[in-house]
Design the sequence.
């Protein structure tokens, strides 16, 4: 049976949780630990990908180059991945990432907009990257449309294509349907990235593997936007129970999570108040997971109910990258409330 | 009164919208539309009684030297780079709506000066650049912008294949205009395509980091600037007025929304509307100069 390839995104999706403030020595320790635990691909960088360090998404402590170099210098076998959202990052950012040691790029677009990734996927292939097409908010398109968009990415040269549940809004039967459609209609491997906003990420990941996905994402302790991703160590445990072939070591993965990541997270003094329900709202209203912390800050700043902001973002069908809509919506709600 | 004769290369979405806008202008008229093949846009031009050709720009150069003074190019960067020297030789003022940027960037409410009108070729930046640089320039005037960042959201419907295939060109050109026209020391431009139904209006979030945080002064000058923009793009307005993102920082945020005139594409395509409205504005000023019309009098 084909081995399942694990991509751990603690150092990229997990960056949202620490507001993109991972330190170089933290990146080195975590990447080194993941590598020793047999994780195949380690994604690193600002939560919003290359060149994500902005007013809109938050400024990172270190540059993309510094973070990629740190991770690349700490691993022996694992491949270091970066994320690129066309419209935010550019081909020139990608060249820098390659020079810094990234071997994989995940080129991410909204699920209906794959054609904006053509130049980036083609150029990445020319540079020698292993290229993953990342269709975000896969919840927003039906199976036929996802297949159509995945075929575009495959035609540009992608090596793998992902259905990405950015809002943590997908239900297991939907995952089965969409991954099955992808498996039946495209020739390259299929992957799945989850968010645990409705408490379904491990179940959804399992549904994806059962439907034929061979690339699965996780993060240590589930660190990531919203309620976080599938817990990598739990994914390994479940894969062992299911007798799926993979390269990871369960105890080592568990230990890196508790002994290395946990103290780091504690040192970042993350306040966990109401996070469960706050992230649940994202899955409920179909809102991009990284909007949560921005919306919580805006709710506080304008003294409005966080849930109302999230519902409005869902109603407006905001897509990944539109964090700029949050403050505006919070201000509007506050105006209405006080008028 | 005589109108100044114009030519149009490339009657696609942008081009067909320009055809409608030119047809109702007081100072300019469309004499010839060319394309490199027969198309729906050429047929539309013929229906409007305009001379057309599928032989490309050479047709204009061969038949309209000394007749056409202004040429709108709505093709591609590559095509414009090739034809720009010939248009110059023929004495035709080129309005470049492609990312070629052979000539300087022109954003009417910021730098449409006598010098600009004396150029033989000017570039219209991008739709996002037209919507955001005036505001950045205004804020820079009173608050000294050391960093500008824009997030432009376009409806998926209104982003054509050209934009989609060259999205880096779009963000890099917009960034460059934020610095060179807007006056920011440094800048970033982001573009997001949103497929929501019904389609969203074009919106532009503008963040500026300023050395002199005086929100009252900023609000006043932005209000003045948006009125100047409304002279040629009536559908542009603040959806969110300049506000500090946090009372304790130096980041001023505002949102400019552009509702299109609905000429060729529906009103949500404010992106298409604003770049064309800017081109028309420049053409009109150039025409007035040629006709010797002084503002306020005919």
Sequence:
């Amino acid at each position: 049976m084909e081995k399942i390839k694990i991509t751990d995104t603690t150092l990229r999706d997990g960056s949202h949780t620490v507001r993109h403030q991972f330190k170089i020595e933290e990146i080195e320790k975590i990447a080194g630990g993941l590598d020793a635990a047999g994780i195949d691909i380690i994604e690193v960088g600002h939560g919003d990908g290359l060149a994500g360090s902005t007013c809109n998404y938050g400024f990172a402590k270190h540059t993309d180059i510094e973070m990629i170099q740190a991770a690349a210098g700490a691993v022996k076998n694992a491949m270091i991945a970066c994320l690129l959202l066309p419209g935010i990052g550019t081909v020139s950012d990608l060249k820098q990432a390659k020079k810094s040691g990234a071997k994989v790029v995940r080129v991410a677009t909204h699920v209906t907009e794959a054609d904006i990734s053509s130049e980036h996927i083609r150029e990445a292939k020319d540079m020698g990257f292993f290229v993953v097409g990342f269709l975000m908010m896969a919840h927003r398109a039906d199976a036929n449309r996802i297949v159509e968009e995945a075929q575009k990415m495959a035609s540009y040269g992608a090596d793998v294509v992902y259905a990405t549940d950015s809002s943590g809004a997908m239900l297991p039967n939907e995952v089965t349907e969409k991954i099955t459609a992808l498996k039946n209609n495209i020739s390259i491997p299929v992957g799945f990235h989850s968010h645990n906003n409705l408490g379904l990420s491990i179940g959804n990941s399992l549904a994806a593997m059962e439907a034929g996905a061979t690339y699965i994402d996780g993060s240590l302790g589930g660190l990531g936007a919203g309620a976080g991703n599938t817990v990598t160590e739990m994914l390994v445990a479940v894969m062992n129970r299911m007798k799926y072939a993979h390269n990871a070591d369960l105890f080592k993965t568990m230990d890196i999570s508790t002994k290395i990541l946990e103290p780091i997270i504690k040192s970042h003094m993350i306040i966990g108040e109401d996070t469960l329900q706050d992230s649940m709202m994202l899955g409920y209203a179909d809102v991009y997971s990284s909007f949560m912390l921005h919306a919580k800050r805006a709710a506080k700043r304008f003294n409005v109910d966080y849930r109302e902001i999230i519902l409005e973002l869902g109603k407006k069908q905001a897509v990944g990258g539109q964090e700029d809509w949050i403050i505006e919506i919070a201000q509007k709600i506050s105006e209405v409330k006080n008028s | 009164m005589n109108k100044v004769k114009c030519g149009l290369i490339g009657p696609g979405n942008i081009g067909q919208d320009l055809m409608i806008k030119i047809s109702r202008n007081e100072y300019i008229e469309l004499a010839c539309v060319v394309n490199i093949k027969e198309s729906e846009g050429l047929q539309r031009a013929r229906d409007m009684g305009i001379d057309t050709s599928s032989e490309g720009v050479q047709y204009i150069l061969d038949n309209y030297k000394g007749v056409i003074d202004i040429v709108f190019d709505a093709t591609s960067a590559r095509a414009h780079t090739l034809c720009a020297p010939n248009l110059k030789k023929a004495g035709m003022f080129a309005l470049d709506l492609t990312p070629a940027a052979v000539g300087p960037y022109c954003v009417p409410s910021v730098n449409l000066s006598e010098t600009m009108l004396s150029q033989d070729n000017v570039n219209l930046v991008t739709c996002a650049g037209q919507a955001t640089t005036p505001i950045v320039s205004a804020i820079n005037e009173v608050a000294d912008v050391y960093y500008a960042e824009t997030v432009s959201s376009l409806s998926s419907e209104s982003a054509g294949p050209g934009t989609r295939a060259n999205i880096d060109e779009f963000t890099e050109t917009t960034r460059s205009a934020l610095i060179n026209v807007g006056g920011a020391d440094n800048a970033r431009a982001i573009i997001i395509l949103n497929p929501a139904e019904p389609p969203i209006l074009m919106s532009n979030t503008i963040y500026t980091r300023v050395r002199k945080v005086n929100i009252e002064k900023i609000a006043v000058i932005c209000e003045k600037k948006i009125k100047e923009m409304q002279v040629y793009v009536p559908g542009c307005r603040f959806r969110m007025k300049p506000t500090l993102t946090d009372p304790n920082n130096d980041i001023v945020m505002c949102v400019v929304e552009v509702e299109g005139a609905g000429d060729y594409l529906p009103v949500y395509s404010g992106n298409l509307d604003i770049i064309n409205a800017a081109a028309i504005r420049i053409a009109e000023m150039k025409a007035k100069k040629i006709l010797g019309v002084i503002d306020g009098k005919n």
Remarks:
- Residues 250-267 of chain A form the longest helix (18 residues).
- Chain A touches chain B at residues 51, 54-56, 86-88, 90-92, 110, 112-113, 115-116, 118-120, 140, 301, 316-322, 324-325, 327-328, 331 (CB under 8 Å).
- Chain A has 13 helices and eight strands.
